[in-house]
Amino acid sequence: MQVVVGSLLGDGTLLETTSGFCFRVHHGLKQKYLADWKYGILRRFVRTLPRASGSGYYFRTVTHPVITALRLEFYEGNRKVVPFHCLERHLGGLALATWIMDDGAADGAQLRINTQGFTFEENQRLISLLKRKFGLSMTVNFDKGRPRLRCRASSMEKLVQIVGPYIHPEMCYKLASHLTTRALARHRLRETD
User: Which residues span the domain enclosing 103?
Assistant: First the structure.
């Protein structure tokens, strides 16, 4: 559930089928490893292997009542919204890591999460949620007049502790230029001790 929720905050979509909705993962060929990572977690809900199409690489789950229920929470018409009630239950470290792997970008010693598809009010509520659930200090900044989240440099170490055990090694670059694969490996070791 956390991988689906994190993906839906990011690049994931829910597609209508004849009997409800399915979850679709679609990344560019350069991020094939991320789609394969998600497939590895969700494979028991997938009937066909991920495949390339043009410059993309994708798979989709079977139709499932849980996915259909998520459609009601994550969408108003065709617009994706932030389902805060759902996030209270399902936004944990794995979901946050998945969201960052989809929509995060290093910005010096900080991280920005590309939440421009959400309203300013939704971004403000996300800041409160991330502070309350994880103790992260976030702000809103604007990209071409549209709001996006930024994790302050003072919270980056805490963020790495939360998401480090889940971040795919190829995605370490998203956690800011001052964080290294070695730093993430240290956090993974602490988790397994």
Answer: 91-192
Note the pTM of the prediction, 2 decimals.
0.90
Number of Cβ within 10 Å of residue 173's Cβ equals: 13
| Four-point Cα dihedral 83, 102, 172, 84, nearest 10 | 0
Same structural domain for residues 14 and 68?
Answer: yes
Q: 80 near 74, Cβ under 8 Å? A: yes
> Given 33, 58, 81, which residue is the final one in a domain?
81
pLDDT at 108: 84
> For residue 101, which of 91, 110, 111, 109 has the smallest C-alpha distance?
111
Give the model confidence (pLDDT) of 12-70 as tens digits: 999 999 999 999 999 999 999 999 999 999 999 999 999 999 999 999 999 999 999 99
Q: Are residues 66 and 102 in the same domain?
A: no
Q: How many CA atoms within 13 Å lie on the side-chain side of 172? A: 17
CA angle 114, 117, 121 (to 5 degrees): 95
CATH number at residue 39: 3.10.28.10
